Amino acid sequence: MRNDKYHIYLNDEEYRQVLQALIDLKNELAAQGRYTDAVDDVLIKITKAKKKRIAVKYI
Question: Among candidates 24, 55, 17, which has minimal Cα distance to 39?
């Protein structure tokens, strides 16, 4: 499971919402005095992910 890779396709609005949700989660965990390492790792992966334009066909 550790080596599995997943692809997620987000538009700009969805990308902003994911980032904001992760930041909110990190702030909640920090306010509770809990570790935020896992959320930090996901934030780094999301922000450093390559962006690729694709054509989407709606049927």
Answer: 24
